[in-house]
Specification:
With 324 residues, this protein is of the alpha/beta class. Helices cover 44% and strands 19% of the residues. α6 links the parallel β6 and β7. α2 crosses α9 and α4 packs parallel to α11.
Length: 324
């Protein structure tokens, strides 16, 4: 190959690299879909909406929330897993993203997705689930509830966002720790489950603070305990289950994910924009107002956190075992 040919090939390669870089630099060129794998009104939706608004302002293109509820989040997460890895379909998920593949193993069924199909962009919130009952119920403590459940096995009911979801797993943990058995009633998300609680269709819920904080403040719901290991900022008077003798913890975090294989310049743009949006004072105030303050982790720290949490949740699912 002659010198002139080498120079020409090098010029073509440089042009292609420059064109690719320019294409990524223009991201985004149109609207971005943020899939929330739950119905409107739940934790992921309540956190996702103000974040998407600010994210759109940072990126210069609208970020549109699409609610895709069902199967404890598996339907929406699976939809994202099948999307093109170009940064135009992103995911706002809860910690259920870590639970569901392990649940599929336990149930011996084909997984809707695998964790390595996703890249963490940023964690937004991280709150323990809260154990709540309606104000007109006779239970004023966890002990009251446990005693009632022991007297009537499988009679008291609790709602959830689906089997092995972030409302089911903590309740299964508590039942194992307390030696009780309650009736599980799955819904498509936290909002329908909360509505069922208020309508008397279920007796108990474990859900994120943002789903019930206003109900607790208005006196319509009683918070008996939470699954954290430190006082809860939005409900400092509510005890931890650990302090009551039940060795269980569960954090219902929310975070933004992109697809593995997304070009690195696009990921960098998303990381920067999500960080700026999560730290925007207006966004922080809106999310904190729901009872769930922003506890942001950037991509690197979130990845470390996610790996550790996923391992812990996999063990929890294995201990719960097969649930049909």
């Amino acid at each position: 190959m002659g010198l002139r040919t080498l120079v020409r090939h090098a010029a073509v390669a440089a042009f292609c690299m420059g064109a690719a870089a320019a294409a990524h630099a223009e991201y985004p060129e149109h609207a971005i879909s943020m899939i929330v794998p739950f119905p409107p009104g739940g934790v992921a939706d309540v956190v996702g909406r103000p974040l998407a608004q600010a994210l759109g302002e940072k990126l210069g293109q609208p970020v549109i929330i699409e609610n895709r509820g069902g199967a404890g989040g598996a339907l929406g997460i699976g939809q994202v897993a099948r999307a093109k890895p170009d940064g135009y379909t992103i995911l706002m998920s809860l910690s259920s993203i870590s639970i569901l593949p392990e649940a599929d193993k336990v149930l011996e069924r084909k997984p809707a997705y695998q964790l390595d199909q996703f890249v963490p962009i940023g964690r937004i919130t991280a709150d323990p689930t809260v154990l709540v009952v309606r104000a007109d119920k006779p239970w004023n403590s966890v002990q009251d509830l446990v005693d009632a459940a022991k007297k009537q096995p499988n009679k008291l009911s609790y709602g959830s966002s689906g089997i092995y979801g972030t409302m089911h797993v903590p309740m299964a943990m508590l039942q194992n720790a307390a030696g009780i058995s309650m009736l599980h009633v799955p819904f498509t998300g936290a909002a329908p489950a909360v509505q069922a609680l208020m309508g008397g269709q279920v007796d108990v819920l474990a859900t994120g603070p943002s789903s019930v904080a206003q109900l607790v403040q208005s006196g319509r719901v009683k918070a008996l305990a939470h699954w954290g290991d430190a006082p809860l900022e939005s409900m400092p008077q509510v005890p931890t289950l650990k302090s009551l003798g039940y060795d269980v913890t569960f954090v219902q975090w929310s975070g933004v994910f992109a697809l593995a294989g997304t070009p690195e310049p696009v990921l960098d743009r998303l990381r920067s924009a999500v960080k700026a949006a999560a730290n925007d004072d207006k966004v922080k105030a809106l999310i904190a107002g729901t009872g769930s303050p922003v506890q942001y982790l950037d991509a690197k720290d979130f990845d470390t956190y996610w790996r550790k949490d996923s391992a812990s949740l996999a063990l929890a699912v294995q201990k719960i075992g097969k649930v049909e």
